[in-house]
Design a protein that fits this description.
This protein is of the alpha+beta class. The chain contains nine helices and eight strands. Helix 1 packs antiparallel against helix 2 and helix 6 packs parallel to helix 9. The two termini are about 15 Å apart. This is AraC family transcriptional regulator.
């Protein structure tokens, strides 16, 4: 379940960045605790994900960039980021929000983490409270969710001056255009590297360099991760069957999707779907 936020922005905070962006959907708000020290592997969901660590420590790698998370750190994730990490001090507790905004540029991997300002924790606490009571509060609750999220964005999103928005194929940001085009054609078979080079008029060597500069990964590995992250997002947010998701994401056989998905996430897609359904059933209110 998600809430559409279009046409609500005129009601919100007057901070400069807020006036320039729209929030099209909020998919999830939560406070999560991992009680054991262990390794983990995960991917971000559709849109942006923001984490605020409030307890514990984590060492993780996001697109080739090492990050050490401790209380007070806030981290932004772009859509399709894949993360490997280890909880080094437990319990690890963090607030998280997953939302979509068509106006926010993607953030370079080395600009994602920062020390959160002191105002952020109360905003996350209020945001979670509004989210947990969203079914009872109607339009006013949706407005409050949007307002609080806009404030979090305004306080923590990297400065516009530090985010390159160039779409030239000869800059690292050119990779994001390649990736965005790829994301809109996931129903087709994956392209070969030579096909990408021909399409964008640059060399294979240059595509490799762009991908490494922007994501820390080789291009075909990154694009496969994008496909698998899309699948994971659909398992979380859609009612499509695993077979439907497989065909929608360019797999001609469900078995191939299951093999690739399990190789990266350690469990088949059916297990992710089962966990999602169990979580949703726990969140549903008792009243009809």
């Amino acid at each position: 379940m998600h809430h559409t936020m279009n046409d609500l922005n005129s009601h919100l905070s007057t901070q400069p960045i807020v006036n320039t962006i729209r929030i099209s959907a909020v998919h999830f708000v939560g406070k999560i605790t991992r009680k054991q020290q262990r390794s983990f592997r995960s991917s971000s969901l559709p849109g942006f994900v923001v984490h605020l660590t409030v307890d514990g420590t984590v060492q993780q790698n996001c697109n080739g960039i090492s990050q050490n998370l401790s209380p007070g750190n806030i981290v932004w994730y772009n859509e399709h980021d894949l993360i490997r990490g280890e909880i080094t001090s437990s319990p690890w507790t963090f607030y998280t929000v997953n939302f979509e905004s068509p106006d926010l540029p993607l953030i370079h991997a080395n600009q994602r983490m920062a020390e959160a300002p002191k105002e952020i924790l109360p905003l996350f606490v209020q945001l979670l409270e509004e989210w947990n009571h969203r079914s009872d509060s109607g339009l006013s609750g949706r407005l409050n969710i949007a307002s609080l999220l806009h404030q979090i964005i305004a306080l923590t999103y990297p400065s516009a001056n530090s985010v390159s928005t160039s779409t030239s194929n000869n800059t690292p940001s050119g990779w994001w255009k390649i990736e965005a085009d790829y994301s809109h054609a996931l129903h087709r078979p994956p392209p070969k590297l030579t096909e990408l080079a021909r399409k964008y008029g640059i060399s294979v060597k240059r595509i490799n360099q762009l991908s490494h500069d922007a994501t820390g990964l080789p291009p075909m590995q990154r694009l496969k991760m994008v496909r698998l992250s899309y699948v994971r997002g659909q398992l979380f947010t859609s009612n499509l069957t695993v077979s439907e998701i497989a065909f929608q994401s360019g797999y001609s056989r469900v078995q191939d999707l299951t093999r690739d998905y399990k190789a990266y996430f350690g469990a088949p897609p059916s297990e992710t779907r089962k966990q999602t359904q169990e979580k949703i059933s726990k969140e549903l209110p008792d009243s009809p």
